[in-house]
Amino acid sequence: MIRSRVESGLRVLVFDRPERRNALTPAGLDALEAALAAATEPVVYLTGAGSAFCAGADLSVVDSLEREEAAAFARQGQRVARALAGYDGAVVAGIDGPARGGGVELALACDLRVGTPAASFAESGVEHGLFGAWGGTVRLPRIVGEGVAMDLSLSGRVLDADEAQRVGLLSRIVEEPRAVATALLDSDHRAIRTIKHRLRDTAPAEEQTEQEAAAFAALVEKRG
Question: Which fold has domain 2-183?
Answer without folding.
Answer: 2-enoyl-CoA Hydratase; Chain A, domain 1 (3.90.226)
